Amino acid sequence: MASDVRIDGARLMKRIFDLAKVGEIDGGGVCRLALTDEDRAGRDLVVGWMRALGLEVAVDAVGNAVGVWRGERADDVVMTGSHIDTVRTGGKYDGNLGVLAGLEVVETLRAAGVRPVRSLAVAFFTNEEGSRFAPDMMGSAVYTGVLGLDEALATKGIDGTTVRENLRRIGYEGEQAPGFVMPSRYVELHVEQGPVLEREGFVIGAVEGVQGISWTEVTLGGTSNHAGTTPMSMRCDAGYVAAEIVTFVRRLAHEIGHPQVATVGALTLRPNLVNVVPNHAVMTVDLRHTDEAVLKEAEARTFAFIEEVAAKEGASVSRRTLARFEPVAFAPEVVARVEETAKRLGHSVRRLPSGAGHDAQMFAPRCPTGMIFVPSQGGISHNVKEHTAPAEIEAGANVLLDVLHAYVRGEA
Ligand code: GLV
Ligand code: MN
Ligand code: MN
Question: What is the C-alpha to C-alpha distance for residues 127 and 297, in angstroms, rounded to an integer?
Answer without folding.
Answer: 29
